[in-house]
Amino acid sequence: MSDTSKPASFSFLKLAGPGLVVAATGIGSGDVVSATVGGARYGFVLLWAIVAGAFFKFVLSEGIARWQLATGKTALEGWAEYLPGWVKWFFATYLVIWTVFVSAALTNATGVGIANLTGGAIAQSWGAVAHSLIGFGFVWLGGYGSFEKMMKLLVGVMAFSILVCAALTLSDPMPAVQGLLIPTIPTGSGTYVLSLIGGVGGSITMLSYNYWMREEKMRGAGFLGYVRGDIAVAYIFTALFGISIMLIASDALYAPGAALRNNEAVPRMAAALGQLLGTFGRVAFLAGFWAAVFASLLGVWQSVPYLYADFYGILKKMSPADRLEVVKVTSTPYRLALAFITLVPLPFAFTGQPIAIIVLYTIVGSLFVPFLAATLLYLNNRVKWTEAVPHNAWYTNLLLVGILLLFAIVGSQEVIGALR
Predict the structure, then answer these.
(1) Whole-model pTM?
(2) Going from the N-terminus, what domains does the chain have, and what CATH number goes with each?
(3) Contact at 8 Å (CB) between 94 and 368?
């Protein structure tokens, strides 16, 4: 895959592409909690919403990747070059705010994960601090190759633990098939359905694919087929993981009108699986949850500093060659950003409100998607490309408009709910 002069073909024997890393980064505590609450409240009927959310994120990620293959530029470089100047400052401000919330949410989530997995032997707050520092050390010393291998290992833990539990607890597959194929919105669940669709598969972390493509030396139109297959694998896995969580919750916790709260989701699910499957079920679910949130933390710690370094190169008006140098894991801007992401969440580990922080992160993250959809409508239609990569098809534009409107509604509802 390092020979960029030859077209690349996708193969299921090469699932080691950055798509699998995107999946592991995008799946976090919010996905687990929302799918658990949805399964407990509504049973199987909202499985289709997880599939819809994963498909929408595929459309956005494919647009980001196609832009880079066509121009050689990251999305951030495209915004700076082709959109009004205020856009890059809006994103920079949003990125700093998002970083605070996402790093706080992920450290708290890993703290919750390790506390549950060890039965409280490791306190949630100190577990959060430890995971943040471990993530820092691993990214600083390991480089992209070691990072990718660790992410694949964590994906393996997630897949084995959660998918196996789903298979063992599923007693009647027909209601699940109906929930997947027949979109249904139960009375009073409209807001939750929109939130569920919006929360699947990450937000700003979708931009990470640009930089991981560079690490894998994917350039030019020859990689279009491979990239599309790679991203498809990412969101198929994302959908399967979310569906598995909802299936488990539907079988283990479903009761019509159940008012399962977010902070009860993980321990209640583990306890229910302990009753259904014994110690294996309880430990497997807790291990899968921990692997999901730690993979998400590692992915953010490794990828978000690219954005800061890229923005630094743009502000300094560096040449494209110099920007390629500054957006490396060994550059000073990258490592300063890594230190910022590591240290800023530590005070939040001792607030005693880990779930509230995770919910706030979900709200902040939901505001990014409509912005991304709007910019892709412009960049992937109006900018002249240097590579033989197709611009947006008419149906892609229709999907992006739908995503823009849907996620604008989701974001506004999340903000209004938080303010109330």
Answers:
(1) 0.88
(2) 18-304+349-419 (1.20.1740.10)
(3) yes
